[in-house]
Design brief:
four-stranded antiparallel β-sheet; Jelly Rolls
Length: 145
């Protein structure tokens, strides 16, 4: 059942939210030179949190992340640029690096909480070097009713 303030006058000032939904992808093979959609959420909602984990074996310097909110590109950035801009700094951007290993090429990226969307939310991954990559991912979101 939806939670929120009661509708005393037929409308609510505060939105009603549904339960937290776990959209987990484990594992998804991302082919080389193909923009692959990892998450595609349709409807109105808010991101509560989540993560992307890239397992080792393939260099991540050419890995690109694309975040599309309501049909507009919110972020289209190389992982290495994220590393220089806001690694290990929560809530400074829509995505931030939480763990990186330059020897084994393992990488973990978290979603910042509080991102709202009216129509859709998409996360896409692209890499142009080496073999296919396995991506483990979860995004937690609530529906706004």
């Amino acid at each position: 059942m939806a939670k929120g303030y009661p509708d005393f006058y037929g409308f609510s000032v505060f939105p009603k939210i549904g339960p937290v939904v776990d959209d987990t992808v484990a594992p998804l093979a991302v082919p080389t030179d193909v923009l692959t959609t990892v998450h595609n959420v349709v409807g109105k909602g808010e991101i509560v949190g989540g993560h992307l984990r890239f397992m080792g074996g393939v260099d991540y310097t050419t890995t690109r992340l694309v975040l599309i909110i309501d049909g507009d590109t919110a972020i289209d950035q190389l992982v290495m640029r994220m590393w220089y801009a806001y690694a290990f700094q929560p809530d400074c951007g829509p995505l931030f690096i939480t763990s990186i290993n330059v020897v084994t090429h393992m990488l973990a990226i978290a979603f910042t909480r509080g991102i709202t969307f009216e129509q859709s939310y998409q996360m896409q991954v692209f890499h142009s070097e080496g073999a296919d990559r396995d991506v483990y991912s979860s995004v937690f979101y609530t529906r706004i009713l």
